[in-house]
Amino acid sequence: LAVATMTYGNVAAFTSRDLQVILAYSSMAQVGYILAALAAAAYFAGNLEVSMLRLALYAVALQSIAYAIAKAPLFAFTGSTARELERLRGLMGVSPAAAVSVSVLLYSLLGVPPLLGFWGKLYLFLSTSGYTVWLTLAALINSGVSAVYYIIASRELLTKQERPPTPPAMKYKIALVIAALLILVLGIVAPLFMSSLISVYL
After folding, report:
1. CA gap 27, 14 in Å, rounded
2. Number of domains present in the structure of the chain
């Protein structure tokens, strides 16, 4: 179920040029990642592998938190402005803060360090590798697919355009900037709280 959910979501998002649709289908993929970590957690709980169980539960928690912080302002943004990537091209020219913040949130969903989403993905891969390597491989392949559409979306926003889109309202800019800063700060401090767990795993 986890593999089917993440694969369908990523393939559907990959074929879309509508940012809101991309976010919706990528949400399905994120659920697939969380299901994978939960499957690993159930396995470790049944085998009384406490350190690995904690690792899987941290993966669930970090994935969920990173997802919630990023997706709420992103959906609000796409619901208030143009949704098609072609119409969002050049946002950097009229609202650098919004363009950069959206890109930061997208890269967190992808799992780029040092953003919070990176730690969720890292613990996901570590925990599922202790459960079954095939689930880890499926998650890695799906992350590769998601990298394509996240990078394309970010590139469109950051590309210069002679006729840039209408900038989002100030309240959406503020929400995006706060979320991006929160994702960055939490991504930096997360390893301070997780280092003991990593040392146990390694």
Report:
1. 13
2. 1
How big is the CA angle at 125 (ends 35 and 192), to the nearest 5 degrees? 105
CA pseudo-torsion sign 110, 113, 118, 124: positive
The candidate with the shortest Cα–Cα distance to 200, out of 58, 63, 50, is 50
Task: Give the domain range for residue 157.
Answer: 2-201
What are 91-135's pLDDT values in tens digits? 998 899 999 999 999 999 999 999 999 999 999 999 999 888 999
Mean pLDDT of all residues in 14-27: 94
Whose tokens are 């369908």? That residue is 8
SS3 track for the chain: CHHHHHHHHHHHHHCCCEHHHHHHHHHHHHHHHHHHHHHHHHHHHHCCCHHHHHHHHHHHHHHHHHHHHHHHHHHHHHCCCCCEHHHHCCHHHHCHHHHHHHHHHHHHHHCCCCCHHHHHHHHHHHHHHCCCHHHHHHHHHHHHHHHHHHHHHHHHHHCCCCCCCCCCCHHHHHHHHHHHHHHHHHHHHHHHHHHHHHHHHC
Please tell me the total number of residues recorded for the chain in this structure.
Answer: 202
Its pTM stands at 0.90
